[in-house]
Design goal:
The protein is mostly helical. The chain is built from 17 helices and no strands. The longest helix has 24 residues.
Length: about 400
């Protein structure tokens, strides 16, 4: 048994007692280091852009183009001084590459109509599973159930967030999905549900229900959390801060518990606790980025419901929570990999704060955030103007398909 109620209660209690991070100086990056990262990043972009534009038309030329691209990817991933990869050893880097390429190949086999944006959303989930494999010392690589669970995101989560569907449509879909996840019916009624039915079937073949009950309990829990989160969208009443905290903790936490369970079907108590906390951190990072849009559409989240004068308090509390949770977990897992998780959680928060639709923060906190970034805001703005040229979805996939061969 997962004991989700107890995990939520303990995690929320930790959040409530977390102090605000007084300053961000421990994460400041000095100007010399920032310039070095900008030079390295600029070098890579100067390699990527001409390479991407020079996509050839003939199969023979495409083969040479692919070989050049794969060699470049290996080189970039092994440059340990770049922020994204600096905590990765070669073994971890190769695991990420293997999982990424295998997943994208399976996407193209499963549904060639899936958008690039939805694919990237699912790929992010696969990367979380890869991170957990490394943290929990279960580096077993890629398997179909990882693909299936990650693909459920664009087919379920996005459907429930889509304002074009009525509450009745969403409730009917949730009833069908609940039955299918429990293995008690849920025969598909349309093409959308046929895809989901196939994905759940992949999980069932990998992890038989009788042998791996934790896998299915985690799937039930995330579905239950997703249904509860619809209360954030109905606009019928204002949720209290405590209600939003409970919804966010359960929704974010259970999604990563399922990630952990989908590695090998098992999680111990320490791993369960970390998955819940990690998922909550990721959930709040997403909410920060989408706060403006959520507020505009009356979607209530912890980020969108804070008053502007309290955004700094919220952000500083979240940063300290990340630090506290990861420091605690270092006694269980490889400290280097835990640092990788903590740093990437911070980068998610910092990058989210710079998005157009993010929460508003004070000029003081914004200056502190910019001091923590491995590249300057000016550098980011300059590179955004260069990338990408206006490629269609088909042009993107044409290049990716060749790389994935």
């Amino acid at each position: 048994m997962i004991g989700i109620d107890n995990l939520c209660a303990c995690g929320i209690a930790e959040w409530n007692k977390t102090n605000e991070c007084s300053d961000l100086k421990n994460w400041y990056i000095d100007e010399e280091q920032r310039q070095h990262v900008e030079v390295q990043t600029d070098k890579i972009m100067k390699e990527i852009l001409p390479f991407w534009r020079a996509f050839p038309n003939t199969p023979r030329s495409q083969k040479r183009w692919r070989q050049k691209g794969l060699k470049a990817i290996d080189s970039w991933m092994n440059q340990g001084d770049l922020p994204l990869f600096k905590e990765m050893n070669r073994e971890v880097a190769e695991l990420f590459r293997e999982i990424t390429f295998s997943f994208l190949r399976d996407v193209r086999s499963f549904d060639r109509q899936l958008s690039l944006a939805d694919t990237m959303q699912a790929l992010r989930n696969v990367w979380i599973i890869a991170i957990l494999q490394c943290l929990f010392k279960k580096q077993i690589g890629y398997h179909p159930a990882m693909f299936a669970y990650s693909m459920l995101y664009p087919y379920t989560d996005n459907f429930l967030d889509d304002e074009h569907y009525s509450a009745a449509d969403k409730n009917a879909f949730n009833d069908w999905l609940d039955a299918r996840l429990r293995g008690i019916g849920g025969h598909p009624r349309n093409d959308h549900e046929v895809k989901i039915d196939r994905l759940v079937g992949m999980i069932e073949r990998q992890f038989p229900r009788e042998t791996y009950p934790l896998v299915y309990e985690s799937l039930y829990e995330i579905q239950s959390a997703q249904i509860a989160s619809l209360r954030q969208q109905d606009g019928m009443r204002i949720c209290t801060t405590d209600e939003l905290l409970a919804i966010s903790y359960r929704k974010g936490g259970t999604s990563v518990v399922a990630d952990g369970a989908l590695i090998d079907g098992m999680l111990n108590e320490k791993e369960l606790s970390f998955c819940m906390k990690y998922g909550f951190m990721l959930q709040l990072g997403d909410d920060i980025q989408d706060a403006h849009i959520d507020g505009k559409h009356h979607h209530q989240t912890l980020a969108s419901m804070y008053s502007e004068v309290h955004y700094d308090v919220f952000i500083r509390k979240l940063l300290q929570y990340v630090e506290d949770i990861c420091t605690e977990f270092k006694t269980y897992a490889d400290p280097t990999l835990v640092n990788f998780v903590a740093e990437n959680c911070r980068y998610l928060i910092f990058a989210s704060l710079l998005q157009h639709d993010a929460v508003a923060i004070s000029p003081i906190l914004k200056r502190e955030v910019q001091q923590c970034l491995p590249v300057s805001q000016g550098f980011i703005d300059d590179k955004k103007a260069l990338w990408p040229y206006s490629y269609t979805e088909e042009e993107w996939w044409a290049r990716l398909d060749v790389l994935l061969q």
